[in-house]
Design brief:
Helix content: under 10%
Strand order of the largest sheet: 1-2-6-5-3-4
Distance between the termini: 39 Å
Number of helices: 1
Structural class: mainly beta
Radius of gyration: 14 Å
Largest sheet: 6 strands, antiparallel
């Protein structure tokens, strides 16, 4: 039996709240994750209720997730179009496009069986054109089942 605990801390450079001590295998910088088992995060998917409960965004540090505040380099799908500053952003369903799991979308899912998981507001979409990333203000809301 393991009594290892994830630890909530503040990044010393940015002051951003992060949780470390997690297993984040399969996540890279900008991926959104959910808790799939003890201290383990996996890419989100708005086609499954459990994986629509977003926990945070991987900041590129192994075992660490950002859980609040403004988060840069968050990945977006191409199919959902460019996010707009001040507009809500959502977890992408894996069916939106190939590789959509763990990404956000500017358009709320609308297919029966999917889940609308608004996770925040787009603060700065300037990275979208070149890299399909944006800075968001992380503020998850309740999930809506379609």
């Amino acid at each position: 039996m393991s009594f290892a605990l994830a630890l909530s801390v503040f990044d010393p450079i940015t002051g951003t709240p992060v949780v470390d001590g997690l297993t984040t295998t399969g996540l890279s910088v900008g991926d959104v994750g959910y808790i799939s088992s003890n201290n383990t995060l996996t890419k989100t998917d708005a086609t499954i209720a459990a994986s629509s409960r977003a926990y945070g965004v991987n900041d590129g540090t192994v075992g660490e997730m950002v859980i609040a505040g403004a988060i840069a380099l968050v990945k977006f799908t191409t199919a959902g179009g460019s996010p707009a500053a001040g507009a809500p952003v959502y977890l992408a369903p894996s069916t939106e496009e190939a590789g959509a799991a763990g990404k956000l979308t500017a358009v709320a899912p609308s297919t029966v069986g999917q889940f609308i998981a608004e996770v925040g507001t787009c603060q700065d979409p300037s990275g979208y054109a070149a890299n399909k990333t944006a800075t968001i203000l992380w503020k998850p809301k309740n999930i809506i089942s379609l």
